[in-house]
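Dear support,

Our group has been running a series of protein-ligand predictions, and this particular one with beta-D-galactopyranuronic acid is the one our PI (initials K.S.) wants archived with full inputs and outputs. We had some confusion internally about which version of the output was final, so please treat the block below as the authoritative record. The input we submitted was:
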Amino acid sequence: MSTPQTTCLFTRFPVSILLLATLLFACTDTTERGADPAAIAESHIWQPDPEVIASREENRPDYIWREEDVPDYDLPDPLMSESGQVINQPEEWPERRAEILEQFRSHMYGHRPGPPDESGFDVIEENPDAMNGAATLRIVEITSRHDGREHSFDAIFFLPNDRTDPAPLFLLMNNRDRDNTDPTREEQSGFWPAEEVIERGYAIGAIQNNDLAPDDDDEFHEGVIRLFEGDDSALHNEREPDAWGALAAWGWGASRVMDYLETDPELDGDHVALLGHSRGGKASLWAGAEDERFSLVISNESGSGGAALSKREYGETIRAVNRFTHWFTGNFMEFNDHEAELPFDQHMLISLIAPRAVYIGSADEDLWADPRGEFLSLAHASPVYSLWGYEAIQPGEMPGLDDPLFRDPRGYHVRSGGHNLTPQDWHYYMDAADRLWE
Ligand code: GTR
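Confirmed final output from the archive:
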């Protein structure tokens, strides 16, 4: 485990000074840089393929693709409270955690409401003989009533039949086509490899993000946002600048699934892995920050606005991600081209999940999502995990290709290939769950 002095240095100083400090304080690995491509090249840690860099530079010449072009940046210390108090005990964390949560709510993801006035759960389909007898299919309609309005969406589950105890669950916040989670299994997709998850003894579930908030600039309010706000504030620019957007609305739905799980004795609500890909991964991280009932939070290639450090400005910038005007708050637009002014960065989002389990997956060719920036968020959340005695993940420890780093309760990998959620990613996530939950 790293010393407290070392972990503080990692979060307080610019990366160049950090590198020096790393060398001076003789940390276990001295190859982390953010800004020293020569050292990366000599080490075994992941580095982007020069051909991929060249092609990204050609297609999107206005963005940063090379490590040497990443600006120096200061990362705020997650363990330094707004009043200047240094947090060094787990008991002191909830108060600091609340401050960080509020920063993310007001500047980035918005204030989402609590549970609705009334909830209802109806099993609308049950098949104990699904997947040739290997699984039970259960489809649950989740209805929320609030202020005289009503909203319903479905959650699909497959439960492993050869398990007699409550099954731990992988829940996907699906941002792609409904076909990817086909309950009939006529369509099968590597994006949600249900048969393989059942085979490994886990239950698998899915919700459709669009059912909660359509992924559309004009229509995003026509789901659970309307349930709370009615029709009055339909357009983004008529809403409060810190009002919740689509990402928060998707996560609100995941929390309603959690409410249901607490009522289903066959599913283990204490062992739920919430998983999202890309925009779904941004939403799963925020959902895991807002709702501490998720015991494992997984971000697959969530990139900008998700796991990647914004202040690196590598690949997708804040201005670029804000082209989806309905995902974040109006306030977040103020940081377009002003990443340095952010009073937080995404390592603090990861910190909000501590001491629970978190796993971040990147892909080799997905430079738009900044694999190194995603890893560094996890590494720079280490001081918070160390409050509970968990060994630090050092910034210089980024693993090589297809070589997951498990440092319970955290995991990270960079998979070969491009932007996608694949069975290989799922296998790494299940390996993490095996370690954490068996
Ligand atoms: C990209 C976008 C990312 C990511 C992704 C996706 O085009 O720039 O932020 O969310 O789409 O969701 O597939």
